[in-house]
Amino acid sequence: MKALVLRAPGAPFTLEIVPDPVAGPGEAVARVLACGSGLTIQHYKAGRIPLAYPRIIGHEITGEIVEVGAGVGGLAVGDAVTAYYYLFCGHCRMCLANLEPLCERSGGNVGKECDGGYAEYIKLPARNFLRLPDGLDYRAHPAEIGVICDALATPYKVNRRTGTRPGETVAVFGAGGGLGIHQIMLSRWAGARVIAVDIAAEKFEACRRAGAVEVVDAAHSDVVEALRDLTGGQGVDVAVDYVSSSATLEQAVQSLAVKGRMVTLGGAGKVFRVDAMQMLLKELDLLGSRYVTRSEVLDTLALVARGELWPLVTDIRPMAEAEALHERLEQGTVIGRAALSIG
Ligand SMILES: [Zn+2]
User: Fold this and answer.
1) Confidence at residue 47, expressed as pLDDT on a 0 to 100 scale
2) Whole-prediction pTM
């Protein structure tokens, strides 16, 4: 099969012919139609997150099952699928509580500890393939359907984590990024008033189109003051921080209203300072959110199948242009998500 192989940190992709994967017991193989290209896998490619080489990255796939291994039930050749990003044991306390991202014996991630979707075929534990619901035209839109399992499902889970309610105000930090844009959509979908916070002015229009009613230019204004001004001095009910630098985390907490919730995920994951008295007096919740469960991926797929949401994929390229696409990811110029068209 054709595959985009990484052979060293920061090295360009090499488009190679490698052996087709073969399903062992408990595994399945899918033909890949498309694979999303987000900042997480650009971190892998750039060598900022260590990998074992050679490695095929990518996890936001749309595919069709072409082979199932011994002992696999519930999955058949021809099934349309996407992938679940975390490798999990399926038997620990966390897995049995439907909390696969917190698996006590996690095997890592698809496209990181095992080969991923930047290839014509992908082999995974069968339980990592999630069947697409009826009503998704995955053959016409494989790139959009592929990114649901992360770019759309992650913000869906954030809504649950923060308990966002209709009428509340949500500030999204890093709103112009691939996850941020989809968080705007999901927060709006939940009935919230959404304020986008970013430093990339060229992405503000996309933030508004996604559903943000206000935009705060973090490069040229005091974010905490701006968010207070936009909420009549009250502060925001929910702050979602996809940047998670020390500065944004502190701004996010300081922007919260009474009973406010701040959630950190992705990004820099830095140490930050918080005033415990403010936490107490305002009964704040400071939360972390780690990817999603398999059932949350299914929930999000169902929302798209019902026509309630549609992912924003603005740059879809063939495998031969992967290097150019990742150059755009590195520069941060992609609006929404990018993807490779493969099958
Ligand atoms: Zn487990």
Assistant:
1) 95
2) 0.96
pLDDT of residue 159: 98
- If you measure from the C-alpha of residue 287 to the centroid of ligand 1, how many angstroms do you get, rounded to a whole number? 22
User: Letter for the amino acid at 109?
Assistant: N
What's the gap in Å between 292 CA and the centre of ligand 1?
14
Ligand 1 centroid to residue 107 C-alpha, Å: 9
Taking the centre of ligand 1 as the mean of its atom positions, its distance from the CA of residue 73, in whole angstroms, is 19
Instruction: Dig out the tokens for 41 from the structure.
Output: 């896998």
> What spacing in Å lies between the alpha carbon of 98 and ligand 1's midpoint?
9
Cis-peptide into 54, omega within 30 deg = yes
pLDDT in tens, 37-72: 999 999 999 999 999 999 999 999 999 999 999 999
What residues pair up with 4 in beta bridges, in sequence order?
15
How many angstroms from the chain centroid is the CA of residue 38? 8
- pLDDT tens digits, 244-295: 999 999 999 999 999 999 999 977 888 999 999 999 999 999 999 999 999 9
CA of 89 to the centre of ligand 1 (A): 4
What distance in angstroms lies between residue 95's CA and the mean position of ligand 1's atoms? 4
Token pair 């099958």 is at which residue?
Answer: 343
Structure tokens at 239: 């702050």
Q: How buried is 324 (Cβ within 10 angstroms: 0-12 exposed, 13-18 middle, 19+ buried)?
A: exposed
Q: Quote the ligand 1 centre to 96 CA distance (angstroms).
A: 7
The predicted structure's pLDDT at residue 266: 75
CA of 86 relative to ligand 1 center, distance in Å: 10
Ligand 1 geometric centre to CA of 92 (Å): 4
* Distance from Cα 128 to the centre of ligand 1, integer Å: 13
* Rounded Cα gap, residues 21 and 123, in angstroms: 6
Alpha helices (runs of H) in the chain, residue ranges in sequence order: 39-46, 93-96, 142-147, 153-162, 178-189, 204-210, 223-229, 246-254, 276-282, 294-305, 322-331
Give the chain's mean pLDDT: 97
The CA distance from 209 to 316, in Å, is 20
